[in-house]
Amino acid sequence: MSLVMYLYPKCGTCRKAKKFFEEHGVAFTEKNIATEPPSREELAELVQKSGLPAQKFFNTSGMKYRELGLSQKLKGMNEEEKLDLLASDGMLIKRPIVTDGEKVTVGFKEETFADTWLK
């Protein structure tokens, strides 16, 4: 499977990640997280393959996250409920998410991208 990047075109972090790949000649397929969000099943797989808890997939700086008061509500939710919530709105998902079907990165840190995607 080739690289897939779930991103939001207006997101500065996503633009940095995209630029990183372009500068390093890494081919990837873009999916707009607002219009083509990962399904609940895809999210469950991404969470499992990332080794991170579902909590780490939330865009904690997003308006939607704050509007819904999720910083408090998430504490009382189990992983399944968190996945359902993430699947309900792509704008709740931290971005970019990059996967090759085996590995998954969430967010953009140049060092992590270099270690994960340039080898």
Automatic annotation (TrEMBL):
Source domain of life: Bacteria
CDD domains: ArsC_like (cd03036)
InterPro entries documented for this protein: Arsenate_reductase-like, Thioredoxin-like_sf, Tscrpt_reg_Spx/MgsR
Pfam families attached to this UniProt entry: ArsC
NCBIfam families: arsC_related
Family: Belongs to the ArsC family.
Listed name of the protein: Arsenate reductase
Classification of source organism: Bacteria, Bacillati, Bacillota, Bacilli, Bacillales
